[in-house]
Amino acid sequence: MALGMGASRRLGREQHGRVRSRLQPCPPLRPGGDPELVGIVGLSLRVSLGAAVIAFGLGAPVGALLAVARFRGRTGLLVLLNALLGLPPVVVGLVVYLLVSRSGPLGGLGLLFTLGAMLLAQSLLALPIVAALVHRTSEGLWAEYCDALRVDGVTRVRAVVTLLAMGRAALLTAFLAAFGRAIAEVGAITWWAATSVAIPEP
Fold first, then answer.
1. 86 within domain boundaries
2. Among candidates 130, 129, 143, which has minimal Cα distance to 67?
3. Domain-embedded: residue 43
4. C-alpha of 179 from chain center
5. Based on the structure, what is the number of domains in the chain?
6. Which distant-in-sequence residues (6+ apart) come within 8 Å of 70 by Cβ?
7. Which residues lie closer than 8 Å to 191 by C-beta, 6 or more apart?
């Protein structure tokens, strides 16, 4: 028993020594910053900010319109919208891949493994957040001011614009939430980085 324990300890020390010999010390950061690291961070910020802008431009009017309009299936659409708040980013990456691959419906656009596809994936992640947050704010405003707006004879489009103008603070919150979702959830574009090497293009 003692002999076996001694052999196990020697083996463990030898393995530990081999691992330590393979480890390389990290090079010191350059005073001016690593250009490659700066480029990666800048690209992440540009893609995330662009995705937040696209999601805000599409999601804010949709959220306000859902507060104003009444139509069949509206409740189901709201349930689906809230369910998409927890959409896994890897699933979004896979869906976008299937859409823009050569055999997909958007394959002719040549977006496969491009910044455009990354932007599309991040926008799809952030869009439900913007729409849901704007809808909650607009629904409260519509319940309070709908009678006055109807007396003025505003159209549905004008009512959406008015609600968005009245809920400016909530719009800022929605935009920041969209940007946070886009820059935090890297699974959608990490999937792309992995499959660009691991999976041949269909």
1. yes
2. 143
3. no
4. 8
5. 1
6. none
7. 89, 90, 93, 94, 97
Q: Domain residues for 146? A: 50-194
The rounded Cα 12 to chain-centroid distance in angstroms is 44
Average pLDDT, the chain: 79
- DSSP H or E stretch at residue 58: helix 35-68
Structure-token match 């910020």, residue found: 45
d(CA 102, CA 200): 11
Residue 133 in any domain: the answer is yes
Query: What CATH number should be reported for the domain holding residue 187?
Result: 1.10.3720.10
* Mean pLDDT value across residues 119-125: 89
Residue with tokens 């932007």: 119
Q: Is residue 134 part of a domain?
A: yes
pLDDT of residue 201: 47
Q: Kindly report the CA angle at 46 between 202 and 179, in degrees rounded to 5?
A: 95
Placement of tokens 């991040």 in the chain: 122
Alpha-carbon span 83 to 80, nearest angstrom: 5
| Mean pLDDT computed over 8-13 | 54
Residues 80, 73: Cα–Cα separation, whole Å: 11
Q: How many CB atoms lie within 10 A of CB 158?
A: 13
pTM here?
Answer: 0.73
Task: Indicate whether 198 pLDDT > 50.
Answer: no
Distance CA 158, CA 153 (A): 10
